[in-house]
Amino acid sequence: MLRALKTIAEAEKEAQRIIDAANIQAQEVRRKVAEEAEKACEETYRQVIIEAKQRAAEAEKKAKSEAEHKTKTILQQAEEQLTSIRAKVKENFDKAVNAALGEVLA
């Protein structure tokens, strides 16, 4: 009977040693998983920042292009209006000169 108790006690000690070793391994696995999760999170954050910068650069480029296009359109319209105004001024000037000459000569 004493021998059986010793065997049981030894088996319990061995079981406890196995449990302790398993707990140590589980803690190491948890630590590694936490490190990997943190690295994955940092990498995801870095990728999001890169993508945001790229999108911002694309948006800025598009806005600049649209602004240049609008500026060219406005400038072209202004030049057309200036040409039209100059033509009207010349026409009115010619009419004014003719009217003045008509008055002087009459």
Question: Which features would summarize this protein structure in a list?
Answer:
rod-shaped, 106 residues, mainly alpha, 0% strand
N- to C-terminal distance: 153 Å
Oligomer state equals single chain
- By helix and strand content, what is the structural category? mainly alpha
Shape, per Cα inertia axes = rod-shaped
Radius of gyration, in angstroms, nearest whole number:
45 Å
Helix content: over 70%
Order of helices and strands: H
Q: What is the average of the pLDDT values?
A: 93
Q: Sheet bearing the most strands, described?
A: none
**How much beta, percentage-wise?**
under 5%
Number of β-strand runs: 0
Helix run count: 1
Question: TL;DR?
Answer:
With 106 residues, the chain is an all-alpha fold.
Molecular structure report:
- With 106 residues, the chain is mostly helical.
- It has one helix and no strands.
- The model has no long low-confidence stretch (mean pLDDT 93).
Write the layout of secondary structure elements.
Blueprint: H1 2-105
